[in-house]
Amino acid sequence: MSKKTDRLRRAKKTRERIKRTGSDRLCVHKTPKHVYAQVISSNTSQVLASASSLDKEVRSHIKYSGNMEAATIVGGILAERAKKAGVKKVAFDRSGFKFHGRIQALANAARENGLEF
Fold this sequence. Notes:
It is built from 4 helices and 4 strands, in the order H-E-E-E-H-H-E-H. The chain has one domain (3-112): 2-Layer Sandwich (Nucleotidyltransferase, domain 5), CATH 3.30.420.100. It has helices at 3-21, 56-59, 68-84, 102-112, and strands at residues 25-30, 35-40, 47-52, 91-93. It starts with a helix and ends in a 5-residue tail after the last helix. By secondary structure, it is an alpha+beta fold.
């Protein structure tokens, strides 16, 4: 198995567990240059809030969009947007990525700004 297939297998397993709980999920994806995050509704599979390192609001605060600083800002902005949409509690879907570095920074920033998971 390759690294990508291993990651996708882990992601599939996590998403099945989250579906059983029936809670909204905070889905994170990363590439070498950017970080993307969405809060997705469990009932309708609609995006309730989203943020990425490509947003103008984020770009004004950072120099480079593929580091932990950018992930921290994205997590904070996502938490604020989710609270405006009425979401307080989510399940964290890390899309099979290991919980360290940018993924951990985004999660910690979202927690600090009011999301519970």
